[in-house]
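hey can u check if this looks right to u? its 155 residues, i copy pasted from the old doc so theres a chance i mangled smth
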Amino acid sequence: MMLLDPRRGASGWAWGALGIAAVAAASVFFAFDAVPFMDLPAHAGLFALRGRFAMSPFEQELYVLAPHLGGYSMFRFLGGALTPLCGPLTAARALEALGVVALPLAILDARRRLYGRTSPAFGFLGIALGFGLMTILGFASFLIGMALLVECTAI
């Protein structure tokens, strides 16, 4: 535990372990053929639907797109921007991975801004918070918004 003691300077090993943990957490979203989290297929389906809605009279007859401004809006916007580049499923996976990585980075940056120092322990805490029940229960789309909230409150 001496490596992660916030009163001492952290060694390079601890920062390296944090980087490996972040890469491992993000790679889980790409490691399986079937997406292992609850809302990823739904997000991919909505990204695909939004991409072809204007050109499909069939879908215009069956669906109504009436988005409201809220916590999901940024996720929906980023998914719409990434879908033409890499497809809806890869866009959903990339955004979910971004949320899991953005929260620890935001916590580390907030600690640096507020206290002038940081420790890899807070990055590990961010990974545990981001890659926990929020992701498994399908709320990982809000992790990007949480990372922005942490950044904005630390200014």
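DSSP finds eight helices and no strands in the chain.
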